Every structure is written in structure tokens, then in C-alpha cells.
Q: What sequence folds into this?
């Protein structure tokens, strides 16, 4: 390949505050997903599988884990001589420094990165969706239609449409109007947050947007409506495959469960479109005698001596004898102690669930950690690096957070440690 | 971390055959333990000891080995200085019909280019998880010319075995090859430590005498003229000498002590990564006492087995006491016991295959049953 045709930019700087303790110390795209992945593996792998070799990863919020994870891009074959993965944090200039004010401003601040590669097109992606998509096919549609911008859209159920940014289109999927979370939607085509722009057009729009002091500097709120107002040709690109937003506790849990309930939809075993990840260096998993494992996903380093049912386990999880793990998502290194019983729990990195703990959807009532704002459907979430007291009871819809002030006797946390 | 050593690993062993299993590959490229090849252990041991320069001496069937090692990136051996060096037979055009001393010529070039003081030399059939720091410091302290690592497994793993007779000061005074009745239980692990310049001298001498093949125990055998020290290794060391010892060694991973010593001692075992999906267990999966790798789909029953990557075990099928390698598909209503299935084998519905624990059935690479 001679001249660069396309550069991808992944917006990975958001906090993902609706994930509560899971994003307290890491950015959302670095959150583990689906037993052996991180969320960002999906857009990164999609890029590589689509033939895009220059990928900028824009980081801002708690970037350490994400920077370390992406590293030199090697796991995705993005360690090329004149291409690859580039971490793009906010920076200082002679005029001072500024954080990324919004999604559009993040790209604005990195215009010289894009210019240096002088692409014709730019793909803008977000780091919080689980899907497999061929951006090359989308780019082809963009070129064939002579569009200035192409937005990937997903047909959502009509009753859910008010939760999304909705695109109203005319014939040939040319976009007429962008409705952010409309009360009365005129269409059910939701924007997936996957954009392709002709770079010259976007470049100009970013400069104009930056000059407007009232702008939110956001793609959905500002750039897209402004381009429409200027009469640019924006097209919708319909995507029909599996696509899930994992921005909330319940959607993160559900999307993990989809791997078990409808494995053919996301189809992780498809060797023609592999999802690459940074592999842990751990031996194959071991299932001891007396263990039961059904309807579950497991990966390297797990050691199972108890019952695991309908759960997604990341690397090096230990489930001890007599423990019951049901409908759970366990992140790397979690230990479930002897006789513990947990259901519908999301347990973050390394947390040790003490012996005979009872936690999750089957424990009714409310307790000091109940957090109905973020947790629903009975799901309990545990922060990383906690030792939960033996025999503790944690009721449904709790978020166990070491920063929540709880009377000593009511606290379920024995100690905290660095993971 | 000791830094002043380099490594030399022999990729194959002409004295060891695993029948159909070693037809497509060198011994060190033999899949082992779910996601590894035998060589991963020795390469990781060297890297975990701070060794940054490793030569891999091959003479045939090295395709699968080279696919596996690649540039050495998985072991952090893709380096500008040093790194992983594959040393294939050095065939020069004028003498293409016979490979004379070219195997040793290649080794000599590799040894001469290095600046390390010591060389750790290892064979292709040993699986252990260790670092060589103690081995090298004991070698230095002993004042020996050569140190050889051994343990007390005797002839437990069958032939070939090199039984050492060691005097009270720890020096080797005799070595017996496949003795009918072992005089001691001290069996060489075929891992040596010696100075690089001494190894160069030894090889030069061997070449002058017309030797073409690099043999670890031909160096140990020099106990008459050089001081050869025996270093006892007390951790778990598995030897792959035959199909039977391969099978037994694989099954020994199911015991906690062996598994913990080889995999959870704190030193990681590196291998080529494959980016398979997580393994999925379905409704009627029934698992016990088994090692399972990524990318598998398990619908049936698995007992006391080692399952490699991307294996499918269908409904109403039982797999017991088996080693099932990568990409094997086992259809419905099968019963397999004491079977080794090599990569890509396909078992059709309703097949019953039962071997004996002392004589497992071996199904070759890509076979259809």
C-alpha cells in the first residue's frame, strides 16, 4: 500500500460513569469483556480485519491501564514500520494546555496527526460497543455514493428509539435530519457512533466548530447537524449484525450473557474475523473433580473446583470447592471462596469473595451498598481489589465500593489491596 | 537474574521416536499440556533466567517448529542484539549430497559470535519449570569444567536413559546408557552448563575427529579428561522418551503437585498466542479433572483428560483419560478412552475407541475415523 487512504480514530477517553466502580480506575474501553477480551479489542480488531493499519487511540480519563493494554499494538498486528496503533493523549502547547472538551475537540486537537498521514478518509469510532463490522465495506458505500460523511445505523425497536440518536432519511438512505433522543421518533435508525468522513470535509467542520464558543464540540450534537445545515451529503449505512452498547451495568451484564445464550450471533470462533486481544501468559484452565461447569465461558488460568453455571469467567479465576457461581461475570483473578454463593454478580479484578458469602439477585431487601441508580435487575457489582468478609450477605442491586461510608459492623469489606 | 549465559537447544533427538506423533514434527515441537509445545518450557526457563540469546539446533522436520517460534516474539526473543537463532543444517552447494560437519559448523558460528561466558545446553525432551541461576552458581563454585543436571527418576521413563555414577564430591565418574540394571537412580536430564570457550574447543576437537552430530552426552562422556559435576534438580521434570511416557507425562499434569510446579511456580511459561475465543461449555457438559484450552466447545462428558485448543466434543460423547490435540472434532455418541488424538483428527458419530492405559491408541494428524 502506498498512500494512506484511511486513518481510524478511536474515542477512548470517556469515563463511562454509568459503570460505577468498574471504571473508577480504568477507562471504559479497558474494561474486561467476554472472558478473554477488553471492550477496545472489538474496534481495534475490526480495524485490522478491515485493512486499516493506522489507528489513533484518543485517551484521557484514567489512561494507564488502557495505554499499557494497547501498548505498541502488537497483539492486533498494529506494530508496523510506518503505521500502527498510536496513543493520543491531550497535550501541552506553547499557548497552554487543554483537555479534550468533547469528541469533536479530541479529533480537532489531533488534526496534525491525521494530516501527517494525509488520508482521504477518516473513520471515527467509539470504544464502548461490542460488534464485528467491516469498515472497508462501509467505506466502499461512502465512496460509491459520493458522500461527505457516512454514519453507520442500526435498526432498533421503535419503542427503544427515544434512547438513541435517530437519523431520519429519505430515499437511498440520504440523511435529512439528526434527532438526538427524540420523544416522538420519525425513524428507528439509530446512529452507532461509527462515522466515516471525507477528511477535507471533516477538517473544515472541526475548525468551524472550534471557533464557535457555544458548541459542545460533539460529533452527534454539533458536527453532524452543522454538516446537514450546510447541505453536505450525509448517508446512512445500515448494519444488520450483532451490535451492543455496553455503557451500563445491565447492558454489560446482558452482553456478556449473550456469549452464552446466542454464541452464533457475535460468533467469536469465526476465524475469518478474529477478535484479537493481549493474551495473558497463563496455562490452560483446569476443572477439578467434583466441579460442575455448564453453560459457561472460561479461559486460560482458571481453576474450578465448585459449581459454575451460566457465567463468563476471565483469566485466572478461582472457584473453590462448594462455591456456587451463577449468572455471573468474573473479571481476571477473582477468587470465589469455599461455600460462597453468588448470582448475577459482576466482580472486578482480583476481588476475593470470602467463604460462605451470599451475594446477588437471590438476596432480597436493601443494604448499605444498594445502588439502584446504577444497578438494576438484581445485579451486584464488586470493586476491584477487595477482600469480602467470610459469611457476608450482599443484597441485590448493590455496588460494593470501598469509598462508600458504611458503619464498621455493616461493612462487608475486610480489606482492600492493589491489583 | 543471571545475564552472562546463552542457550543452545537441540530441536530433535534421533534416539527418540513417538511413532506417528513425531512423523510430522521435531520432538521439541510436540504439543504438550493443552497449549504448549515441549520447547516452550526450555525456552521460557532460559528467558526467565535472563538469557537473551538462544540457538535452536535443527536438522530436519523444522517447519512446524519454525511456525511455532517465529521471530521469538512470544518469548521476548525478537531482539536486535542476540535473540532467537534457528540453526538449520548448513548445506553448502559443493557438498549438497551429504550433510557432513555442517551441523557443527552452524553451531560454531553461533557460539563464536556471542560474548557470553557460559552456555546452557539442553535437549528436546525435558519439561521443567526452573531458572538456571542456581545451576550456574553451583557450576562456578564446584570448579568443574562441565556441570550436568540430573534427578533421581532413574529408568522410570524408559529408554533412552543416561544413568550417572557420581562420587562423594559430586563429580561424575561413570555414565551408563540404557543399562539393563541401573546402578543408581541418578538419571541425566541432558542439561549442561559450561564455558563457551570450552564448548568451542570441544566441538572443534570433535569436528577434527570427523564427528558431524552434536550430542549432549558425548560431552558428558568426557569425564575421564574433564571435571564433570552433577547438579541435582529436585523439582518436577518430565521426560518424553516414548509414546507411553508422553501419555503418562500428560496425565501427570492432572495431579496438583505436578501442575502447580510446572505452571504456578511464579515463572511464566510462554508460548505462541493464537487468539482463540473463550471455551464454551453447553447445557449437558460434564467435566471433571481435566485441563482445557481456549476455543473449545464442550457438549459432552470429559474426564481426566488434556484438551488442546479449539476442540469440539459433541453431545452424548464421553472422553476419558485422553489427550486431544488442537482442532480435533469428536462427533456425537462416541466413547474414547486412553486415546491420543493428534491435531485436526475427525471422529465420526458413534465411534468407540478404547486403548489401554499402558498402551494408548494413537490417531495421527488429520486422520478421519
A:
Amino acid at each position: 500500500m502506498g498512500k494512506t487512504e484511511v486513518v481510524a480514530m478511536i474515542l477512548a477517553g470517556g469515563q463511562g460513569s454509568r459503570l460505577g466502580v468498574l471504571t473508577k480506575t480504568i477507562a471504559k474501553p479497558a474494561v474486561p469483556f467476554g472472558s478473554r477480551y477488553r471492550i477496545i479489542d472489538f474496534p481495534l480488531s475490526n480495524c485490522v480485519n478491515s485493512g486499516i493499519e493506522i489507528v489513533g487511540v484518543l485517551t484521557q480519563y484514567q489512561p494507564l491501564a488502557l495505554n499499557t493494554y494497547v501498548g505498541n499494538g502488537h497483539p492486533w498486528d498494529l506494530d508496523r514500520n510506518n503505521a500502527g496503533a498510536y496513543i493520543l493523549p491531550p497535550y501541552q502547547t506553547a499557548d497552554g494546555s487543554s483537555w479534550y472538551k468533547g469528541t469533536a475537540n479530541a479529533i480537532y486537537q489531533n488534526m496534525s496527526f491525521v494530516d501527517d498521514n494525509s488520508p482521504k478518509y477518516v473513520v471515527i469510532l467509539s470504544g464502548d460497543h461490542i460488534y464485528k463490522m467491516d469498515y472497508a465495506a462501509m467505506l466502499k458505500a461512502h465512496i460509491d455514493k459520493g458522500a461527505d460523511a457516512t454514519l453507520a445505523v442500526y435498526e432498533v425497536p421503535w419503542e427503544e428509539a427515544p434512547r438513541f440518536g435517530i437519523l431520519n432519511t429519505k430515499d437511498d438512505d440520504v440523511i435529512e435530519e439528526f434527532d438526538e433522543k427524540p420523544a416522538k421518533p420519525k425513524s428507528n435508525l439509530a446512529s452507532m457512533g461509527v462515522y466515516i468522513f471525507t477528511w477535507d470535509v471533516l477538517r473544515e467542520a472541526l475548525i468551524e466548530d472550534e471557533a464557535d464558543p457555544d458548541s459542545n464540540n460533539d460529533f452527534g450534537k454539533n458536527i453532524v447537524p452543522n454538516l446537514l445545515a450546510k447541505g453536505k451529503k450525509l448517508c446512512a449505512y445500515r448494519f444488520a449484525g450483532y451490535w451492543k452498547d455496553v455503557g451500563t451495568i445491565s447492558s454489560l451484564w446482558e452482553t456478556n450473557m449473550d456469549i452464552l445464550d446466542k454464541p452464533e450471533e457475535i460468533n467469536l470462533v469465526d476465524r475469518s474475523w478474529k477478535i484479537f486481544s493481549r493474551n495473558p501468559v497463563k496455562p490452560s484452565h483446569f476443572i477439578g473433580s467434583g466441579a460442575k461447569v455448564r453453560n459457561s465461558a472460561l479461559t486460560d488460568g482458571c481453576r474450578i473446583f465448585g459449581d459454575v453455571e451460566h457465567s463468563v469467567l476471565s483469566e485466572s479465576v478461582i472457584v473453590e470447592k462448594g462455591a456456587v457461581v451463577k449468572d455471573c461475570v468474573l473479571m481476571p483473578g477473582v477468587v470465589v471462596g469455599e461455600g460462597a454463593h453468588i448470582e448475577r454478580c459482576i466482580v472486578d479484578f482480583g476481588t476475593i469473595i470470602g467463604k460462605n458469602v451470599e451475594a446477588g439477585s437471590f438476596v432480597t431487601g436493601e443494604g448499605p451498598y444498594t445502588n439502584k441508580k446504577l444497578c438494576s435487575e438484581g445485579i451486584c457489582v464488586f470493586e476491584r481489589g477487595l477482600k469480602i468478609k467470610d459469611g457476608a450477605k450482599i443484597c441485590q442491586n448493590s455496588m460494593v465500593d470501598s469509598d462508600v461510608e458504611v458503619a464498621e459492623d455493616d461493612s462487608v469489606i475486610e480489606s482492600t489491596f492493589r491489583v | 537474574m543471571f545475564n552472562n549465559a546463552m542457550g543452545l537447544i537441540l530441536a530433535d533427538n534421533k534416539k527418540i521416536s513417538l511413532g506417528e506423533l513425531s512423523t510430522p514434527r521435531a520432538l521439541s515441537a510436540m504439543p504438550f499440556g493443552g497449549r504448549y509445545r515441549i520447547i516452550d518450557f526450555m525456552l521460557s526457563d532460559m528467558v526467565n533466567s535472563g538469557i537473551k540469546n538462544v540457538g535452536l539446533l535443527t536438522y530436519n522436520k523444522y517447519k512446524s517448529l519454525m511456525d511455532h517460534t517465529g521471530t521469538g516474539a512470544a518469548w521476548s526473543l525478537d531482539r536486535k542484539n542476540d535473540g532467537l537463532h534457528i540453526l538449520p543444517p548448513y548445506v553448502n552447494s559443493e557438498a549438497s549430497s551429504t550433510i557432513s560437519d555442517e551441523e557443527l559448523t552452524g553451531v560454531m558460528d553461533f557460539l563464536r559470535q556471542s560474548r557470553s561466558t557460559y552456555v546452557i545446553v539442553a535437549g528436546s525432551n525435558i519439561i521443567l519449570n526452573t531458572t538456571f541461576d542456581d545451576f550456574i552458581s553451583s557450576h562456578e563454585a564446584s570448579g568443574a569444567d562441565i556441570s550436568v543436571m540430573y534427578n533421581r527418576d532413574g529408568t522410570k521413563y524408559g529408554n533412552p536413559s543416561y544413568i550417572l555414577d557420581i562420587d562423594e564430591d559430586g563429580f561424575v565418574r561413570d555414565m551408563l546408557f540404557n543399562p539393563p540394571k541401573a546402578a543408581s537412580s541418578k538419571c541425566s536430564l541432558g542439561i549442561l552448563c559450561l564455558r563457551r570457550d570450552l564448548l568451542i574447543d570441544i566441538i572443534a576437537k570433535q569436528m577434527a575427529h570427523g564427528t558431524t552430530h552434536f550430542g549432549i552426552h558425548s560431552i558428558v562422556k568426557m569425564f575421564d579428561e574433564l571435571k564433570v559435576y552433577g547438579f541435582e534438580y529436585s523439582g518436577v521434570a518430565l521426560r518424553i522418551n516414548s509414546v507411553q511416557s508422553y501419555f503418562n507425562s500428560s496425565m501427570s499434569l492432572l495431579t496438583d503437585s505436578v501442575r502447580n510446579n510446572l505452571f504456578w511456580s511464579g515463572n511464566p511459561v510462554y508460548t505462541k498466542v493464537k487468539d482463540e475465543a473463550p471455551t464454551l461449555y453447553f447445557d449437558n457438559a460434564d467435566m471433571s479433572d481435566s485441563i482445557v484450552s481456549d476455543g473449545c466447545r464442550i457438549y459432552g462428558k470429559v474426564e481426566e483428560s488434556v484438551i488442546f485448543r479449539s476442540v469440539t466434543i459433541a453431545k452424548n460423547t464421553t472422553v476419558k483419560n485422553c489427550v486431544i490435540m488442537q482442532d480435533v472434532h469428536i462427533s456425537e455418541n462416541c466413547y474414547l478412552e486412553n486415546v491420543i488424538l493428534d491435531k485436526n483428527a475427525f471422529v465420526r458419530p458413534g465411534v468407540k475407541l478404547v486403548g489401554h492405559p499402558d498402551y494408548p491408541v494413537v490417531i495421527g494428524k488429520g486422520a478421519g475415523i
